[in-house]
Amino acid sequence: MTRITKNAVILAAALAVGGCSWISDNLFPSFGGDDPAAPPDAQPVARPATARAPSAGKVLRQPTAAPAVPAVAAAQPPPMGTSTFTPPAVTPGSPTGTTVGTKVVQMRGELGQLQGGINQHNQELQQLRAQTISHAQGYHGTVAAINSRLQVGTTPGNPVLTSQWNAAQTQLDALSRDIALLNSLANRVASDSATTSYLLETTRATYGLSGAVDEDHSQLAILEDEVNRTVVLVDRLLNELAEDINRQSGYVGRERKNLTTLSVAVKNGELMGASLANRAFAAAPFSASARSRPGGSAAVTSGGRRPLVVIRFDRPNVEYEQALYTAVSRALERRPQAGFDLVAVAPGQGSAAQVARGANAARRSAENVLRSLTSMGLPANRVSLSAGTSGQAQTAEVHIYVR
What we know:
With 403 residues, the chain is of the alpha+beta class. The chain contains seven helices and five strands, in the order αβααααβαβαββ.
C-alpha cells in the first residue's frame, strides 16, 4: 500500500470516529446525571438556567452546559373558509291552469323559501367567521404579551401576568362559544340539505304526473336545474362548515393545553414553551403497561440506563420545573413516542425508621414531579411511577428515565 493510500485510510478512519462522536454529542445529548449505582463523582453537577438568580444548594444534576430556555414559536390560528354561499334567484313562471302547473308553482315557492334560509345561513356564517378571527387575534395578542414578559424574566406569580392569563382564558372560552355556534349553524344547514334533497326527488317525480302540457315540463326542467344547483351549494356549505369546525376545535384543544403550561410558567416567573402534550401527541397511544402506578414500590433497576434528569430534594422549595420541562421537551423532539419512568430514590443508610422516613419523602417528591409533568401537558399514561433505595443517595431524589 502506498504512502498516499495509507494516509487516506487513516484520514477516513479519523473522520469516521469524529463523526460518531459528533452524532452522539449533538443528536443525542445527555440531559441527566449518573445511574444511582455509579460513583457519585462520575458526573458534574450544574444548575438549570432560569430567569431569576440561582439560590443555594444543589437543584438538578444536568450536563456541564446548562440548557437554554426554549424559544416559543408564535402559534397562529388555523385559517377560516372564505367562500360565500348565495343561491341563484328562482326563475319566475306563468301558471298553465293544469294540476301539474299548480304543483310547479307550489314547488317554486318552496324553493324560494329554502333559498331565503340559505342566504340567512350564509350571512350568519360570515359574521361568525369575522367574530372568530377577532377573538383569535385578541387571544394571541394576550398570550404574546405574557410570553414576552416571561422571556426577559419576571417575579413568580406576577399579578399583571396572572390577570393577562385570566383574560387569555376568557378569550379562549369565547372561541369555544364560536365553535358551538358554528355547530348549531351546521345542524340547521343539514336540515336544509335534507329539504333540498326531498324537493329534488319531488320535482323529478312530477314528470310522471298525467295531465301536463309542454309548458309544464319546460318549467319543471328549469326548476330541476335550480334545485340541483341549490343542492350542490348546500353540500359545499356543509363541507366548509365541517372543515372550519374541525380545524378550530383542534386548535382550541391544543391552546387549552398550552394555557395550562403557561400557568406554570407564570407561577414560576420564567418562560417554558408549548404544552408537552402537543409534542407527545405526534405518536401513537402507549400500551396499558406504561400507565402510571402511583404509590407503587420497586427496586431501582436502571438496567444500565443513564437518567434523563436527577432532582435532589436537599432543601425546601427546589426549583426544578424549568430544567425538567427543557429536558423532557428535547427528549420528545427526538423520540415523540417516548415514555418516562419516575423513580423515587430514598437513602439506604441509617436505621429502619430513618429509611422509612426517607422513602416517604422520596415518594412525595416523585408525586410532585409527576404533577408538574401533567401540568406541563404530558399525558399521564406516558409516565410510570416507582420507588426504591440507594446506598449512595444522601437525600431524597427523583430520577427520570426515558423508555
